[in-house]
TrEMBL record, chain A:
Gene3D superfamilies: Lipoprotein localisation LolA/LolB/LppX, MucB/RseB, C-terminal domain
Coiled coil: none
InterPro entries, A to Z: MucB/RseB_C_sf (IPR038484), MucB/RseB_N (IPR033434)
Organism listed in the record: Actinoallomurus spadix
Protein name per UniProt: MucB/RseB N-terminal domain-containing protein
Every MucB/RseB N-terminal domain range: 86-194
Domain of life from the UniProt record: Bacteria
TrEMBL record, chain B:
UniProt key word ATP-binding: no
Domain Putative zinc-finger residue range list: 8-37
Membrane-traversing stretches: 124-146
Keyword Protein transport: no
Coiled-coil intervals: none
Residue ranges, annotated region (Disordered): 68-116, 167-187
Keyword vocabulary terms for this entry: Membrane, Transcription, Transcription regulation, Transmembrane, Transmembrane helix
The name this protein goes by in its record: Putative zinc-finger domain-containing protein
Length: 357, 187
Protein backbone atom coordinates (compact mmCIF):
# COMPACT_ATOMS: atom_id res chain seq x y z
CA UNK A 1 0.00 0.00 0.00
CA UNK A 2 2.73 2.43 0.99
CA UNK A 3 4.65 1.47 -2.17
CA UNK A 4 1.67 2.51 -4.24
CA UNK A 5 1.34 5.77 -2.30
CA UNK A 6 5.01 6.49 -2.90
CA UNK A 7 4.55 5.77 -6.62
CA UNK A 8 1.59 8.16 -6.74
CA UNK A 9 3.57 10.81 -4.86
CA UNK A 10 6.36 10.58 -7.41
CA UNK A 11 3.85 10.83 -10.23
CA UNK A 12 2.18 13.88 -8.66
CA UNK A 13 5.55 15.49 -7.97
CA UNK A 14 6.68 14.90 -11.55
CA UNK A 15 3.47 16.36 -12.94
CA UNK A 16 3.78 19.44 -10.71
CA UNK A 17 7.41 19.95 -11.78
CA UNK A 18 6.47 19.62 -15.45
CA UNK A 19 3.68 22.18 -15.06
CA UNK A 20 6.00 24.55 -13.20
CA UNK A 21 8.65 24.24 -15.93
CA UNK A 22 6.00 24.87 -18.58
CA UNK A 23 4.95 27.99 -16.72
CA UNK A 24 8.56 29.22 -16.52
CA UNK A 25 9.08 28.57 -20.22
CA UNK A 26 5.92 30.36 -21.29
CA UNK A 27 6.04 33.28 -18.89
CA UNK A 28 9.78 34.02 -19.08
CA UNK A 29 11.02 36.57 -16.55
CA UNK A 30 9.85 35.72 -13.08
CA UNK A 31 11.41 38.71 -11.36
CA UNK A 32 8.36 40.79 -12.16
CA UNK A 33 6.50 38.73 -9.60
CA UNK A 34 8.74 39.99 -6.84
CA UNK A 35 8.98 43.72 -7.46
CA UNK A 36 11.22 45.57 -5.10
CA UNK A 37 9.76 48.56 -3.33
CA UNK A 38 10.80 51.90 -4.83
CA UNK A 39 10.39 55.43 -3.64
CA UNK A 40 7.81 57.15 -5.92
CA UNK A 41 9.61 60.50 -5.55
CA UNK A 42 12.89 58.93 -6.73
CA UNK A 43 11.11 57.45 -9.75
CA UNK A 44 9.48 60.83 -10.46
CA UNK A 45 12.88 62.55 -10.44
CA UNK A 46 14.30 59.99 -12.86
CA UNK A 47 11.27 60.33 -15.13
CA UNK A 48 11.60 64.11 -14.96
CA UNK A 49 15.26 63.93 -16.00
CA UNK A 50 14.25 62.72 -19.45
CA UNK A 51 11.83 65.62 -19.90
CA UNK A 52 14.49 68.06 -18.67
CA UNK A 53 17.02 66.66 -21.14
CA UNK A 54 14.53 67.37 -23.97
CA UNK A 55 13.27 70.76 -22.78
CA UNK A 56 16.43 72.37 -21.37
CA UNK A 57 19.04 74.17 -23.43
CA UNK A 58 22.49 73.30 -22.15
CA UNK A 59 26.05 72.74 -23.12
CA UNK A 60 28.91 71.13 -21.31
CA UNK A 61 31.60 68.49 -21.24
CA UNK A 62 30.89 64.90 -20.34
CA UNK A 63 33.48 62.51 -18.98
CA UNK A 64 32.86 58.86 -19.80
CA UNK A 65 34.96 56.09 -18.27
CA UNK A 66 34.53 52.36 -18.38
CA UNK A 67 36.55 49.63 -16.68
CA UNK A 68 37.45 46.30 -18.20
CA UNK A 69 37.64 42.92 -16.45
CA UNK A 70 41.35 43.44 -15.85
CA UNK A 71 40.78 46.83 -14.21
CA UNK A 72 42.00 48.88 -17.20
CA UNK A 73 40.07 52.08 -17.73
CA UNK A 74 39.18 53.83 -20.95
CA UNK A 75 38.14 57.45 -20.86
CA UNK A 76 36.49 59.72 -23.39
CA UNK A 77 35.65 63.40 -23.20
CA UNK A 78 32.57 64.52 -25.06
CA UNK A 79 31.41 68.08 -25.78
CA UNK A 80 27.64 68.10 -25.61
CA UNK A 81 25.25 70.85 -26.63
CA UNK A 82 21.50 70.63 -26.77
CA UNK A 83 18.89 72.96 -28.30
CA UNK A 84 15.27 72.07 -27.48
CA UNK A 85 13.27 71.18 -30.55
CA UNK A 86 16.38 70.56 -32.63
CA UNK A 87 18.63 67.99 -31.06
CA UNK A 88 21.90 67.20 -29.38
CA UNK A 89 25.37 67.56 -30.85
CA UNK A 90 28.05 65.33 -29.39
CA UNK A 91 31.69 65.84 -30.26
CA UNK A 92 34.02 63.15 -28.96
CA UNK A 93 37.50 64.47 -28.22
CA UNK A 94 40.46 62.29 -28.97
CA UNK A 95 41.81 61.01 -25.67
CA UNK A 96 42.54 57.40 -24.97
CA UNK A 97 40.09 56.57 -27.72
CA UNK A 98 41.72 56.12 -31.10
CA UNK A 99 39.94 58.96 -32.78
CA UNK A 100 37.37 61.61 -32.14
CA UNK A 101 34.25 62.36 -34.11
CA UNK A 102 30.96 64.08 -33.89
CA UNK A 103 27.36 63.12 -34.08
CA UNK A 104 24.05 64.91 -34.17
CA UNK A 105 20.95 63.31 -32.69
CA UNK A 106 17.60 64.91 -33.50
CA UNK A 107 15.14 65.59 -30.69
CA UNK A 108 12.27 64.02 -32.61
CA UNK A 109 13.88 60.60 -32.82
CA UNK A 110 11.77 57.93 -31.17
CA UNK A 111 14.49 55.75 -29.74
CA UNK A 112 14.88 54.81 -26.12
CA UNK A 113 17.13 57.23 -24.29
CA UNK A 114 19.61 56.40 -21.60
CA UNK A 115 23.02 57.63 -20.43
CA UNK A 116 22.54 61.11 -18.97
CA UNK A 117 19.42 61.80 -21.01
CA UNK A 118 17.14 60.23 -18.44
CA UNK A 119 14.77 57.32 -18.49
CA UNK A 120 11.97 56.50 -20.89
CA UNK A 121 8.86 54.90 -19.35
CA UNK A 122 9.97 51.49 -20.66
CA UNK A 123 13.43 51.70 -19.13
CA UNK A 124 12.07 53.16 -15.92
CA UNK A 125 9.62 50.27 -15.66
CA UNK A 126 12.47 47.78 -16.10
CA UNK A 127 14.52 49.63 -13.48
CA UNK A 128 11.65 49.64 -10.96
CA UNK A 129 10.92 45.98 -11.69
CA UNK A 130 14.46 44.80 -10.98
CA UNK A 131 15.75 47.26 -8.40
CA UNK A 132 14.58 49.28 -5.42
CA UNK A 133 14.91 52.91 -6.55
CA UNK A 134 15.39 55.20 -3.56
CA UNK A 135 16.73 58.65 -2.66
CA UNK A 136 20.15 58.53 -1.04
CA UNK A 137 20.90 62.06 0.12
CA UNK A 138 22.46 65.12 -1.45
CA UNK A 139 25.56 65.47 -3.62
CA UNK A 140 27.59 67.89 -5.74
CA UNK A 141 28.49 67.57 -9.40
CA UNK A 142 30.47 70.34 -11.18
CA UNK A 143 29.55 72.77 -8.43
CA UNK A 144 25.81 72.09 -8.63
CA UNK A 145 23.69 70.61 -5.86
CA UNK A 146 22.14 67.26 -6.73
CA UNK A 147 19.74 64.71 -5.32
CA UNK A 148 21.32 61.26 -5.26
CA UNK A 149 19.17 58.36 -6.31
CA UNK A 150 20.26 54.76 -5.94
CA UNK A 151 19.03 51.62 -7.65
CA UNK A 152 19.56 48.84 -5.11
CA UNK A 153 19.64 45.10 -5.55
CA UNK A 154 17.56 42.76 -3.41
CA UNK A 155 20.53 42.37 -1.04
CA UNK A 156 20.63 46.14 -0.49
CA UNK A 157 23.84 46.86 -2.43
CA UNK A 158 23.80 49.73 -4.92
CA UNK A 159 23.83 48.68 -8.59
CA UNK A 160 23.43 52.20 -9.99
CA UNK A 161 23.68 55.74 -8.70
CA UNK A 162 22.30 58.90 -10.30
CA UNK A 163 22.73 62.59 -9.51
CA UNK A 164 19.82 64.82 -10.51
CA UNK A 165 20.42 68.57 -10.67
CA UNK A 166 18.09 70.28 -8.19
CA UNK A 167 17.74 73.42 -10.26
CA UNK A 168 17.29 72.08 -13.83
CA UNK A 169 16.25 68.46 -13.21
CA UNK A 170 18.99 67.23 -15.56
CA UNK A 171 20.92 64.08 -14.79
CA UNK A 172 24.51 65.15 -14.16
CA UNK A 173 26.15 61.88 -13.13
CA UNK A 174 25.44 58.21 -13.62
CA UNK A 175 27.37 55.27 -12.15
CA UNK A 176 26.98 51.59 -12.93
CA UNK A 177 28.39 49.48 -10.08
CA UNK A 178 29.29 45.81 -9.83
CA UNK A 179 28.43 43.51 -6.92
CA UNK A 180 31.57 44.62 -5.04
CA UNK A 181 30.57 48.28 -5.34
CA UNK A 182 33.23 49.13 -7.96
CA UNK A 183 32.29 51.41 -10.84
CA UNK A 184 31.99 49.59 -14.15
CA UNK A 185 30.79 52.57 -16.14
CA UNK A 186 30.83 56.20 -15.11
CA UNK A 187 29.39 59.19 -17.01
CA UNK A 188 29.28 62.71 -15.60
CA UNK A 189 29.41 66.37 -16.55
CA UNK A 190 32.67 68.09 -15.68
CA UNK A 191 31.14 71.35 -16.91
CA UNK A 192 27.51 72.20 -17.52
CA UNK A 193 25.88 75.49 -18.44
CA UNK A 194 22.11 75.62 -18.79
CA UNK A 195 22.08 78.18 -21.60
CA UNK A 196 21.24 78.00 -25.28
CA UNK A 197 24.22 77.72 -27.62
CA UNK A 198 24.62 80.84 -29.75
CA UNK A 199 24.29 79.18 -33.14
CA UNK A 200 21.83 76.85 -34.76
CA UNK A 201 23.58 73.52 -35.22
CA UNK A 202 22.82 72.23 -38.63
CA UNK A 203 23.04 75.56 -40.44
CA UNK A 204 26.23 76.83 -38.82
CA UNK A 205 28.38 73.85 -38.02
CA UNK A 206 30.76 71.90 -40.19
CA UNK A 207 29.52 68.75 -41.92
CA UNK A 208 28.47 66.30 -39.29
CA UNK A 209 27.01 62.88 -39.09
CA UNK A 210 23.30 62.90 -38.41
CA UNK A 211 22.63 59.56 -36.83
CA UNK A 212 19.42 57.71 -36.23
CA UNK A 213 18.84 54.14 -35.18
CA UNK A 214 17.84 51.52 -37.71
CA UNK A 215 14.41 52.34 -38.98
CA UNK A 216 12.67 48.97 -39.24
CA UNK A 217 11.35 48.20 -35.77
CA UNK A 218 10.33 44.60 -35.23
CA UNK A 219 7.00 44.07 -33.50
CA UNK A 220 5.84 40.89 -31.78
CA UNK A 221 4.51 39.33 -35.00
CA UNK A 222 7.81 40.05 -36.82
CA UNK A 223 9.76 38.41 -34.01
CA UNK A 224 7.40 35.42 -34.10
CA UNK A 225 8.00 35.08 -37.84
CA UNK A 226 11.76 35.24 -37.32
CA UNK A 227 11.59 32.55 -34.65
CA UNK A 228 9.47 30.42 -36.96
CA UNK A 229 12.22 30.65 -39.56
CA UNK A 230 14.76 29.53 -36.96
CA UNK A 231 16.25 32.86 -35.87
CA UNK A 232 17.38 32.75 -32.25
CA UNK A 233 15.27 35.58 -30.80
CA UNK A 234 15.05 35.24 -27.03
CA UNK A 235 12.61 37.38 -25.09
CA UNK A 236 14.87 37.48 -22.03
CA UNK A 237 18.43 36.75 -20.94
CA UNK A 238 19.74 35.82 -17.49
CA UNK A 239 20.22 38.64 -14.99
CA UNK A 240 16.64 39.91 -15.55
CA UNK A 241 17.56 41.31 -18.95
CA UNK A 242 14.37 41.79 -20.97
CA UNK A 243 14.07 42.35 -24.69
CA UNK A 244 12.83 45.94 -24.99
CA UNK A 245 13.67 46.79 -28.59
CA UNK A 246 14.35 44.90 -31.84
CA UNK A 247 15.30 46.37 -35.21
CA UNK A 248 16.64 45.76 -38.65
CA UNK A 249 18.31 48.31 -40.89
CA UNK A 250 15.46 47.79 -43.33
CA UNK A 251 12.78 45.15 -43.82
CA UNK A 252 14.48 41.83 -44.48
CA UNK A 253 17.93 43.26 -43.65
CA UNK A 254 20.68 40.74 -42.94
CA UNK A 255 21.23 41.82 -39.31
CA UNK A 256 18.74 41.72 -36.44
CA UNK A 257 19.51 44.00 -33.50
CA UNK A 258 18.05 42.81 -30.20
CA UNK A 259 18.30 45.19 -27.21
CA UNK A 260 18.06 43.82 -23.69
CA UNK A 261 18.08 45.71 -20.41
CA UNK A 262 17.33 45.36 -16.72
CA UNK A 263 16.94 49.13 -16.44
CA UNK A 264 20.65 49.72 -15.75
CA UNK A 265 22.75 47.45 -17.94
CA UNK A 266 22.14 47.52 -21.66
CA UNK A 267 23.08 44.52 -23.81
CA UNK A 268 22.78 44.63 -27.60
CA UNK A 269 22.89 41.38 -29.54
CA UNK A 270 23.38 41.61 -33.33
CA UNK A 271 22.46 38.37 -35.07
CA UNK A 272 23.45 37.52 -38.66
CA UNK A 273 22.91 34.37 -40.69
CA UNK A 274 26.21 32.72 -41.63
CA UNK A 275 29.54 31.52 -40.31
CA UNK A 276 32.15 33.74 -38.73
CA UNK A 277 35.09 34.83 -40.87
CA UNK A 278 38.04 34.14 -38.51
CA UNK A 279 40.12 36.96 -40.04
CA UNK A 280 37.57 39.52 -38.83
CA UNK A 281 38.33 38.74 -35.16
CA UNK A 282 42.10 38.28 -35.46
CA UNK A 283 42.88 41.11 -33.04
CA UNK A 284 40.29 39.95 -30.50
CA UNK A 285 41.03 37.88 -27.42
CA UNK A 286 40.09 34.30 -28.19
CA UNK A 287 38.82 32.42 -25.18
CA UNK A 288 36.74 29.39 -24.29
CA UNK A 289 33.53 29.57 -22.33
CA UNK A 290 32.02 26.19 -21.43
CA UNK A 291 33.91 24.47 -24.24
CA UNK A 292 32.85 27.05 -26.81
CA UNK A 293 35.03 29.56 -28.61
CA UNK A 294 34.21 33.22 -27.94
CA UNK A 295 36.16 36.31 -29.07
CA UNK A 296 36.23 39.12 -26.51
CA UNK A 297 37.14 42.79 -26.25
CA UNK A 298 36.32 44.87 -23.20
CA UNK A 299 37.72 48.34 -23.63
CA UNK A 300 35.08 51.01 -24.29
CA UNK A 301 32.39 48.47 -23.59
CA UNK A 302 32.09 44.73 -23.22
CA UNK A 303 32.17 43.13 -26.67
CA UNK A 304 31.92 39.48 -27.67
CA UNK A 305 31.66 37.70 -31.01
CA UNK A 306 30.96 34.02 -31.65
CA UNK A 307 29.20 31.73 -34.07
CA UNK A 308 26.70 28.97 -33.40
CA UNK A 309 24.09 26.91 -35.25
CA UNK A 310 24.34 28.87 -38.47
CA UNK A 311 24.31 32.36 -36.94
CA UNK A 312 26.97 34.89 -35.98
CA UNK A 313 26.44 36.85 -32.77
CA UNK A 314 27.98 40.20 -31.87
CA UNK A 315 27.26 41.31 -28.33
CA UNK A 316 27.93 44.87 -27.14
CA UNK A 317 27.17 45.69 -23.53
CA UNK A 318 27.37 48.45 -20.98
CA UNK A 319 27.17 46.01 -18.13
CA UNK A 320 29.28 44.32 -15.45
CA UNK A 321 31.32 41.37 -16.83
CA UNK A 322 29.34 38.66 -14.95
CA UNK A 323 26.12 39.91 -16.57
CA UNK A 324 27.79 39.71 -19.98
CA UNK A 325 29.12 36.21 -19.30
CA UNK A 326 25.66 34.98 -18.33
CA UNK A 327 24.14 36.50 -21.47
CA UNK A 328 26.81 34.93 -23.70
CA UNK A 329 26.26 31.53 -22.06
CA UNK A 330 22.48 31.75 -22.53
CA UNK A 331 22.66 32.35 -26.29
CA UNK A 332 23.11 29.45 -28.73
CA UNK A 333 26.55 28.00 -29.32
CA UNK A 334 27.90 24.92 -31.03
CA UNK A 335 28.05 24.56 -34.73
CA UNK A 336 27.98 21.55 -36.98
CA UNK A 337 27.61 17.84 -36.42
CA UNK A 338 24.79 15.65 -35.23
CA UNK A 339 24.17 17.38 -31.88
CA UNK A 340 24.42 20.82 -33.50
CA UNK A 341 21.68 19.82 -35.91
CA UNK A 342 19.55 18.35 -33.11
CA UNK A 343 19.99 21.54 -31.07
CA UNK A 344 19.06 23.72 -34.03
CA UNK A 345 16.04 21.51 -34.70
CA UNK A 346 14.88 21.68 -31.07
CA UNK A 347 15.16 25.49 -31.20
CA UNK A 348 12.97 25.51 -34.28
CA UNK A 349 10.43 23.09 -32.84
CA UNK A 350 10.20 25.23 -29.69
CA UNK A 351 9.70 28.37 -31.75
CA UNK A 352 6.97 26.64 -33.79
CA UNK A 353 5.24 25.58 -30.59
CA UNK A 354 5.54 29.03 -29.00
CA UNK A 355 6.56 31.79 -31.44
CA UNK A 356 5.82 34.50 -28.85
CA UNK A 357 8.66 33.62 -26.52
CA UNK B 1 2.67 -5.46 11.46
CA UNK B 2 -0.71 -6.44 12.73
CA UNK B 3 -0.77 -8.24 16.09
CA UNK B 4 3.00 -7.87 16.52
CA UNK B 5 3.80 -10.59 13.91
CA UNK B 6 4.08 -10.64 10.14
CA UNK B 7 1.00 -12.82 9.71
CA UNK B 8 -0.23 -12.95 6.13
CA UNK B 9 2.65 -10.80 4.89
CA UNK B 10 5.00 -13.68 5.66
CA UNK B 11 3.62 -15.62 2.68
CA UNK B 12 4.05 -12.59 0.43
CA UNK B 13 7.62 -12.20 1.67
CA UNK B 14 8.47 -15.83 0.93
CA UNK B 15 6.81 -15.53 -2.51
CA UNK B 16 8.94 -12.43 -3.20
CA UNK B 17 5.89 -10.28 -3.77
CA UNK B 18 6.51 -7.55 -1.22
CA UNK B 19 7.60 -4.09 -2.32
CA UNK B 20 11.04 -2.79 -1.39
CA UNK B 21 9.86 -0.80 1.59
CA UNK B 22 7.62 -3.57 2.94
CA UNK B 23 10.36 -6.17 2.44
CA UNK B 24 12.80 -4.04 4.47
CA UNK B 25 10.27 -3.76 7.26
CA UNK B 26 9.59 -7.50 7.21
CA UNK B 27 13.32 -8.31 7.33
CA UNK B 28 13.74 -5.96 10.28
CA UNK B 29 10.91 -7.78 12.06
CA UNK B 30 12.35 -11.21 11.26
CA UNK B 31 15.68 -10.19 12.74
CA UNK B 32 13.96 -9.57 16.06
CA UNK B 33 11.17 -12.18 16.11
CA UNK B 34 12.17 -15.83 16.47
CA UNK B 35 8.58 -17.04 16.04
CA UNK B 36 8.14 -15.39 12.64
CA UNK B 37 11.64 -16.45 11.63
CA UNK B 38 10.74 -20.09 12.33
CA UNK B 39 7.47 -19.74 10.41
CA UNK B 40 9.29 -18.17 7.48
CA UNK B 41 11.79 -21.00 7.48
CA UNK B 42 8.94 -23.54 7.47
CA UNK B 43 7.23 -21.75 4.58
CA UNK B 44 10.47 -21.66 2.59
CA UNK B 45 10.94 -25.41 3.11
CA UNK B 46 7.37 -26.05 2.01
CA UNK B 47 7.85 -23.90 -1.07
CA UNK B 48 11.05 -25.75 -1.93
CA UNK B 49 9.26 -29.08 -1.67
CA UNK B 50 6.35 -27.90 -3.80
CA UNK B 51 8.80 -26.70 -6.44
CA UNK B 52 10.41 -30.15 -6.38
CA UNK B 53 6.96 -31.71 -6.85
CA UNK B 54 6.40 -29.50 -9.86
CA UNK B 55 9.57 -30.78 -11.51
CA UNK B 56 8.45 -34.46 -11.43
CA UNK B 57 6.77 -35.74 -14.59
CA UNK B 58 3.27 -37.22 -14.20
CA UNK B 59 2.90 -40.87 -14.95
CA UNK B 60 1.94 -42.02 -18.45
CA UNK B 61 -1.46 -43.27 -17.30
CA UNK B 62 -2.31 -39.97 -15.67
CA UNK B 63 -1.34 -38.07 -18.82
CA UNK B 64 -3.58 -40.31 -20.96
CA UNK B 65 -6.53 -39.77 -18.63
CA UNK B 66 -5.98 -36.02 -18.65
CA UNK B 67 -5.81 -35.94 -22.47
CA UNK B 68 -9.02 -37.95 -22.67
CA UNK B 69 -10.74 -35.29 -20.54
CA UNK B 70 -9.92 -32.63 -23.18
CA UNK B 71 -11.22 -34.60 -26.23
CA UNK B 72 -13.19 -32.45 -28.71
CA UNK B 73 -16.91 -33.06 -28.72
CA UNK B 74 -17.24 -33.55 -24.97
CA UNK B 75 -20.06 -31.50 -23.50
CA UNK B 76 -19.10 -28.51 -21.37
CA UNK B 77 -19.92 -28.84 -17.71
CA UNK B 78 -23.14 -27.01 -16.82
CA UNK B 79 -22.67 -23.53 -15.30
CA UNK B 80 -23.18 -23.46 -11.58
CA UNK B 81 -25.85 -20.86 -10.76
CA UNK B 82 -24.72 -18.30 -8.18
CA UNK B 83 -26.99 -17.36 -5.33
CA UNK B 84 -27.27 -13.67 -4.36
CA UNK B 85 -24.31 -12.77 -2.15
CA UNK B 86 -22.46 -15.96 -3.02
CA UNK B 87 -18.77 -15.57 -3.92
CA UNK B 88 -17.47 -16.43 -7.41
CA UNK B 89 -16.66 -20.19 -7.64
CA UNK B 90 -12.94 -20.95 -7.67
CA UNK B 91 -11.39 -21.17 -11.12
CA UNK B 92 -10.86 -24.71 -12.45
CA UNK B 93 -7.22 -25.58 -12.32
CA UNK B 94 -5.60 -26.34 -15.65
CA UNK B 95 -4.11 -29.83 -16.14
CA UNK B 96 -0.56 -29.88 -14.86
CA UNK B 97 -1.04 -26.87 -12.56
CA UNK B 98 -0.05 -28.78 -9.50
CA UNK B 99 1.23 -25.71 -7.70
CA UNK B 100 -2.15 -24.00 -8.03
CA UNK B 101 -3.83 -26.91 -6.25
CA UNK B 102 -1.22 -27.28 -3.57
CA UNK B 103 -0.60 -23.58 -2.83
CA UNK B 104 -2.24 -22.41 0.41
CA UNK B 105 -5.16 -20.06 -0.11
CA UNK B 106 -4.19 -16.42 -0.62
CA UNK B 107 -5.76 -14.44 2.18
CA UNK B 108 -3.81 -11.26 1.50
CA UNK B 109 -5.70 -8.02 0.64
CA UNK B 110 -6.99 -8.44 -2.94
CA UNK B 111 -6.39 -4.81 -4.17
CA UNK B 112 -2.77 -4.68 -3.01
CA UNK B 113 -2.01 -7.96 -4.74
CA UNK B 114 -3.68 -6.74 -7.93
CA UNK B 115 -1.69 -3.49 -7.82
CA UNK B 116 1.53 -5.47 -7.45
CA UNK B 117 0.61 -7.55 -10.48
CA UNK B 118 -0.26 -4.47 -12.58
CA UNK B 119 2.82 -2.42 -11.72
CA UNK B 120 5.42 -4.06 -13.98
CA UNK B 121 3.12 -3.83 -17.02
CA UNK B 122 2.49 -0.13 -16.28
CA UNK B 123 6.20 0.46 -16.01
CA UNK B 124 6.83 -1.20 -19.34
CA UNK B 125 4.08 0.91 -20.89
CA UNK B 126 5.52 4.14 -19.47
CA UNK B 127 9.06 3.21 -20.53
CA UNK B 128 7.81 2.33 -24.01
CA UNK B 129 5.87 5.56 -24.35
CA UNK B 130 8.85 7.60 -23.13
CA UNK B 131 11.18 5.87 -25.57
CA UNK B 132 8.75 6.50 -28.42
CA UNK B 133 8.40 10.16 -27.41
CA UNK B 134 12.19 10.65 -27.26
CA UNK B 135 12.63 8.96 -30.62
CA UNK B 136 9.82 11.01 -32.13
CA UNK B 137 11.07 14.35 -30.83
CA UNK B 138 14.64 13.44 -31.76
CA UNK B 139 13.66 12.55 -35.32
CA UNK B 140 11.56 15.70 -35.66
CA UNK B 141 14.43 17.83 -34.30
CA UNK B 142 16.88 16.16 -36.67
CA UNK B 143 14.59 16.83 -39.63
CA UNK B 144 13.86 20.42 -38.55
CA UNK B 145 17.54 21.17 -37.90
CA UNK B 146 18.57 20.60 -41.50
CA UNK B 147 20.64 23.44 -42.89
CA UNK B 148 19.05 25.19 -45.85
CA UNK B 149 22.32 25.24 -47.74
CA UNK B 150 25.77 26.77 -47.67
CA UNK B 151 26.11 29.70 -45.29
CA UNK B 152 27.79 33.02 -46.09
CA UNK B 153 31.02 34.04 -44.35
CA UNK B 154 30.27 36.97 -42.08
CA UNK B 155 32.49 39.85 -40.95
CA UNK B 156 30.57 41.70 -38.21
CA UNK B 157 30.53 45.49 -38.71
CA UNK B 158 31.32 46.10 -35.07
CA UNK B 159 31.81 49.89 -35.31
CA UNK B 160 28.49 50.30 -37.10
CA UNK B 161 26.88 48.10 -34.44
CA UNK B 162 28.48 50.27 -31.72
CA UNK B 163 26.76 53.38 -33.15
CA UNK B 164 23.45 51.53 -33.36
CA UNK B 165 23.89 50.26 -29.79
CA UNK B 166 24.63 53.79 -28.56
CA UNK B 167 21.64 55.26 -30.39
CA UNK B 168 19.18 52.76 -28.97
CA UNK B 169 20.64 52.86 -25.46
CA UNK B 170 21.06 56.66 -25.45
CA UNK B 171 24.80 56.55 -24.85
CA UNK B 172 27.51 58.37 -26.73
CA UNK B 173 28.94 56.16 -29.46
CA UNK B 174 32.64 55.64 -28.85
CA UNK B 175 35.15 54.00 -31.11
CA UNK B 176 37.07 51.05 -29.81
CA UNK B 177 40.60 52.18 -28.84
CA UNK B 178 43.77 50.30 -29.65
CA UNK B 179 44.95 47.88 -26.97
CA UNK B 180 47.38 50.43 -25.40
CA UNK B 181 44.80 51.93 -23.04
CA UNK B 182 45.85 53.58 -19.81
CA UNK B 183 45.65 51.71 -16.58
CA UNK B 184 43.39 53.44 -14.13
CA UNK B 185 42.23 52.80 -10.63
CA UNK B 186 38.63 52.49 -9.70
CA UNK B 187 37.38 55.65 -8.02
Amino acid sequence: MSGRTSHQSWLAGGLATALLMLWFVTTGDTASGARLRSDPEALRLLRGAEGAARDTAYEGVQYITSWSRSGMSTTSLVNVAHVPGQGTRMRVQSTTAEQGGQMFEADDSQQARGGLTGYTPTMLDLLARNYAVVQAGEGQVCGRTTTIIEARRADGTAAGRFHIDRSTGLMLRRELLDQQGRAVNLTFFTEMRPSAPKTMFVAASAPQTVEAPWTHRLAGADLGALRYRGWPVQSALPGHLSLYDARQQDAGGPVVHLSYSDGLSVVSVFVQRGVLDPSSVRSWHKTTRGGRTVYLRDTVQQRAVWAGRGYVYTLLADAPPPVVDQAVAALPHGDTGFWGRIGRGLDRLTSWANPFD
Amino acid sequence: MSGGHLGERLTALVDGELGHHEREKAHRHLAACAECRAEAEALRCLKKRLRALNDTMPSEGLLRRLEAMGEPGDPLPPPVPRLPGQARPPAVARPGDVAARTRPSDNRPRRAAAARRRLPRGRYLIAGAATLAVLGVGSAAFAAGADPGSLPRVTPSVEQFAVEHALTSGDVPLTDPRPEVTAGDHP
